[in-house]
Structure to design on (604 residues):
């Protein structure tokens, strides 16, 4: 199903002349250096293609599948293949002798020349210039005369291709050359099989093209691969174990590389999960999903909020019922590195309408009144904001694939948490228990219930409750709920009230009961609340205004009144009740901060 959906996406993009997706046998590749030749093959310059610090991409013949053997690309490659030179900065195995290195590079260069010769005679001045250059005995001497560009190329080993002096295109882009390449790609004398993806007869692809840009994985990895005997069956080799035709193999890998490409609006990177998404039929929704969850750019900090607001409006106005979005399927594929292969973390198929409702539910679940310190924060959190709230800040380490980047800092999120959270959001499932656990633990360690942590806890508890009791749509409200009699929620409110009394009794106090007793109060209430209630009387006596004493006494009475006397201060609170404790504390504190003054200017 995954490969079929990717093949269909490729066919859709290939039918669109403006999509710029690679045609069969080609791929888009960054070529940092162009070797400019005269018609007689003489090299005249090494021309960089960088624009705004990034090399330009060209449509070139598809890269050869390389393992340990020598396989050359057609009309482009690294300097070892194109020029037959040993790179200065390339690290070599200590087991290889200098003669062995030279022999291998010589074989690579010979393979590059052979690939061009195998195309046959091409009536094109550009191809003739390449052949003349490759036959030159002193070509390296001529290149060294170019000075610094040659030194940089021989040190870095960037990919390069050829350009004819006076042309604006590569030699491989000249019409006669491109036609010859396409004809060579179309030729085949191999036996055909029935492709598992298309159901049509095609030549089997034994080695599938690689998938690139999977964060944390190798440069080139595969989804379909059989390279060891334990993976094989009935004596079949490599791709023959799951016969997929060359057409389908090229289509699904090209489509996936397109979705994973730099600048793609149809991919997200959260922790170790590389997530791509696309629609069965073209729809603007597939370009908006990343804006819902990703951190907005610095030059447009409100992009995410606008995207979510637009999503809610579209559902409310019925815009998603237009153009068949109720039937237009939407695909989400989550990928993670796994040795030399790619692990499928999740595969979600739903209609665009269903997916829109599911995403909206996530933002409803995480919506909570902002704290005083976060009043200028966006109404809805990015996924990075939520995940970073559960973890410690750390230094960047490329060996760690679970790091989350947020506001210029890295956070060491629990392994697999990012991917499982993303899956829960998109499938409408309960959030992973580890998300709630991580948020509660960070609060216990730091004694601070931040805006994003409150959003996480509220969302986790509400979803879990909804799945256990479908009739209860929302247990925890966005703001203070005086009718909520849960013991954890009430004790959280009580703890907030006791802290507020202490703060008003001792203005400017540095260490409050939250700093000293939060962990015990939320985990084992019976051990601390008795003493805190007695201490409260001492603090009330220090309040200068009698009205404040009466206010707090009434508030504490109202909070305790809703609690069963038999379990007033339980020995332990479960993880979910610890979460409810945090939300009760958070809600009550926001009321104190928001309603600072009554109509008479008296502090409430």
């Amino acid at each position: 199903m995954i490969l079929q959906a990717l093949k269909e996406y490729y066919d859709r993009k290939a039918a669109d002349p403006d999509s710029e997706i690679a045609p069969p046998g080609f791929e888009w590749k960054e070529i940092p250096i162009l070797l400019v030749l005269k018609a007689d093959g003489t090299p005249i310059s090494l021309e960089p293609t960088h624009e705004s610090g990034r090399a330009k991409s060209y449509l070139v013949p598809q890269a050869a599948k390389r393992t340990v053997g020598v396989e050359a690309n057609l009309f482009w490659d690294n300097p070892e293949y194109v020029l037959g030179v040993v790179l200065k900065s390339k690290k070599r195995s200590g087991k290889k002798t200098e003669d062995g290195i030279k022999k291998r590079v010589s074989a690579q260069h010979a393979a590059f020349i052979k690939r061009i010769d195998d195309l046959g005679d091409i009536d094109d001045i550009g191809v003739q210039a390449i052949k003349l250059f490759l036959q030159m005995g002193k070509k390296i001497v001529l290149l060294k005369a170019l000075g610094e560009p040659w030194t940089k190329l021989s040190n870095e080993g960037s990919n390069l291709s050829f350009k004819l002096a006076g042309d604006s295109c590569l030699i491989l882009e000249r019409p006669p050359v491109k036609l010859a390449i396409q004809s060579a790609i179309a030729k085949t004398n191999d036996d055909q099989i029935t492709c598992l993806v298309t159901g049509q007869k095609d030549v089997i692809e034994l080695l599938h093209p690689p998938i690139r840009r999977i964060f944390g994985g190798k440069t080139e990895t595969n989804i379909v691969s059989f390279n060891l005997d334990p993976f094989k069956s009935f004596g079949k080799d490599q791709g023959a174990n799951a016969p997929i035709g060359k057409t389908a193999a090229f289509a699904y890998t090209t489509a996936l590389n397109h979705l994973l490409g730099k600048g793609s609006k149809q991919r997200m990177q959260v922790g170790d999960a590389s997530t791509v998404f696309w629609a069965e039929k073209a729809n603007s929704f597939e370009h908006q999903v990343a804006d819902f969850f990703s951190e907005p750019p610095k030059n447009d900090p409100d992009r995410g909020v606008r995207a979510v607001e637009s999503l809610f409006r579209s559902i409310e106005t019925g815009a998603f019922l237009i153009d068949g979005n109720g039937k237009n399927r939407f695909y989400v594929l989550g990928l993670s590195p796994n040795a030399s292969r790619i692990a499928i973390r999740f595969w979600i198929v739903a209609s665009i309408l269903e997916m829109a409702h599911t995403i909206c539910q996530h933002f409803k679940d995480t919506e909570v009144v902002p704290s005083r310190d976060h009043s200028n924060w966006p109404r809805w959190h990015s996924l990075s904001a939520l995940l970073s709230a559960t973890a410690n800040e750390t230094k960047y380490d490329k060996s760690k694939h679970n790091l989350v980047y947020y506001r210029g800092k890295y956070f060491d999120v629990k392994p697999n948490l990012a991917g499982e959270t993303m899956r829960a959001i998109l499938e409408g499932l309960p959030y992973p228990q580890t998300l709630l656990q991580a948020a509660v633990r960070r609060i216990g360690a730091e004694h601070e219930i931040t805006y994003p942590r409150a959003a996480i806890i509220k969302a986790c508890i509400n979803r879990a409750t909804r799945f256990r009791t479908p009739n209860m749509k929302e247990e925890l409200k966005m703001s203070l709920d005086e009718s909520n009699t849960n013991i954890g929620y009430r004790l959280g409110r009580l703890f907030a009230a006791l802290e507020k009394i202490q703060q008003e009794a001792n203005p400017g106090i540095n260490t409050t009961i939250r700093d000293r007793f939060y962990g015990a109060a939320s985990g084992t209430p019976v051990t601390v609340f008795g003493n805190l209630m007695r201490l409260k009387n001492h603090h009330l006596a220090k309040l200068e205004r009698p009205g404040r004493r009466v206010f707090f006494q009434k508030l504490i009475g109202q909070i305790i009144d809703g609690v069963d006397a038999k379990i007033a201060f339980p020995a332990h609170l479960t993880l979910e009740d610890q979460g409810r404790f945090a939300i009760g504390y958070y809600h009550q504190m926001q009321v104190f901060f928001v309603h600072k003054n009554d109509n008479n200017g008296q502090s409430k």
The longest strand covers residues 341-351. The CA atoms of residues 367 and 387 lie 15 Å apart.
